[in-house]
Amino acid sequence: MYSLIVLAGGFSKRLSNVFKPLVRLKNKPLIEILLSNLNELFKEIIIVVKYYEQKKAIEKTLHYKTNITYVLDDKLFEDGPLVAMYSGAKKAHYHKLFITASDYPFLSAYVVKKLLEKLSDYEAVVPIWPNGYIEPLAASYKKMPLIKYSYEALMKGERRVRAPLNYMKTYYVNVYELTYTPEIVFHNINTEKDLMLAEKIIEKFSVGSSPNHPS
Questions:
Q1: What residues make up the domain containing 27?
Q2: In a domain, 215, yes or no
Q3: Quick check: 48 pLDDT over 50?
Q4: What backbone phi and psi angles, to 5 degrees, belong to 6?
Q5: Which of 82, 123, 189, 206 fits a disulfide with 168 by CB distance 3.0 to 4.6 angstroms?
Q6: What is the tally of structural domains in the chain?
């Protein structure tokens, strides 16, 4: 059994400083799209936010509400995605975690399942692009090593998401081993341009196959 941890505390300065999980793509909030794509894999869903008001805003908007636990960032540390990962992992009941940001609308259950299955022999499985760029916010982790090494990194003042990976037994899997269309599957929304491209992807696949198809 697996836990899904969604990092949902961010505002996007490049998207008019809006609360990113509730940015709408074809009239659906990004976080709703993500959960619809992935919920079948998980017995537990943890949504990590910075503020109580963010929790209320997501609760009010989401149609999907089953098995969701909300967690606030650990106040021992300054905010940031690594703090959110640490906070979510501490709350998880299951040993294998998938951690993602809320702005990956085309992340598929097929790809996520592959990343979780590869976790058996490792402490983290992280997609990597041919140019060396990694996707640590769309990756699988084992709970206890992530908690241990995230805490140690944060106590040293290291806030980069990849900091704990330097100490974990990590498998970097080529994105093309996971999907034939990584540029779609790992497309995330940071700018208006990203949002417009996502809309075009949906329009392209509105007839025929889905962008979440494994190919």
A1: 2-204
A2: no
A3: yes
A4: -110, 120
A5: 123
A6: 1
